[in-house]
Write a structure and sequence with these properties.
The chain is an all-alpha fold and 231 residues long. It has one domain. It contains nine helices and no strands.
């Protein structure tokens, strides 16, 4: 009963702000991965380049360069997965340390129950945990891609050469998709911290997160470079 009384500190505006955060996360992810043909996202443009990369790999001898690039991509997933693990541990430690949470509340001159701060930290941990799982899956998919790349015959005219290269390309794209989802999870985890400033702060932080992601996927300078006609 005491817990329910404490949760009453959350208002309808808090619920709307949290709902808007999750809705933005889901909808934006769908739009980025399945954009309108009139304005494709940077992720979709890069997916096409990944397919071309695997086709070009067929004629490259030796294929050390391709293996090096793939290893770099896989190291990136491992780095972010490790960072997420540290963040999850830090978040759980903050939740378990009631005195520190109470001190933070006092520093901010906010007189709210401890459970309110715990719930707000848990919200960020939801996104960080999701990101961690995506990075782990991306790492594994890049590993699958490497194995398939290694199985591509050195003979260009072998019947299984091109099909296997295309398989490697699709696995590479799937790994990149999981990696990008992990990155979006981190963006929204940072945005969810705006809830510490109240529901209005969460709404503003969510809008800022959406704006940044939309700009980088649909209106960035790098996207324009990728779309430039090749001579």
């Amino acid at each position: 009963m005491e817990l329910l009384d404490q949760l009453r500190y959350f208002t309808q505006l808090d619920g709307l702000a949290v709902g808007f955060l999750f809705l933005s996360w889901i909808v934006l992810g769908y739009v980025i991965e399945s954009p309108p043909k009139s304005r494709i996202s940077t992720s979709v443009v890069m997916a096409d380049y990944r397919r071309k990369w695997m086709v070009q790999m067929i004629t490259r001898e030796p294929r050390i360069f391709d293996a090096s690039v793939l290893d770099t991509l896989r190291q990136g997933t491992a780095f972010f997965a490790s960072a997420c693990m540290i963040a999850i541990g830090g978040g759980l430690a903050a939740i378990s340390n009631a005195e520190r949470l109470r001190g933070v509340a006092q520093d901010l001159t906010l007189d709210v129950p401890q459970v309110i701060w715990e719930v707000k930290i848990l919200l960020a941990l939801v996104f960080i945990t999701s990101a961690f799982l995506k990075f782990i899956w991306a790492n594994r998919l890049f590993g699958y891609c490497g194995v398939v790349m290694a199985s591509v015959p050195n003979k260009v005219d072998a019947p299984e050469t091109l099909p296997r290269a295309k398989k490697a390309g699709e696995l590479n794209i799937a790994a990149a998709r999981a990696f990008n989802r992990g990155l979006r999870g981190i963006y929204f985890a940072l945005g969810s911290l705006g809830w510490f400033l109240g529901p209005i702060g969460l709404l503003i932080a969510t809008l800022m997160t959406v704006f940044i992601l939309v700009r980088r996927e649909f209106a960035s300078a790098s996207r324009e470079v990728l779309l430039q006609d090749e001579v």
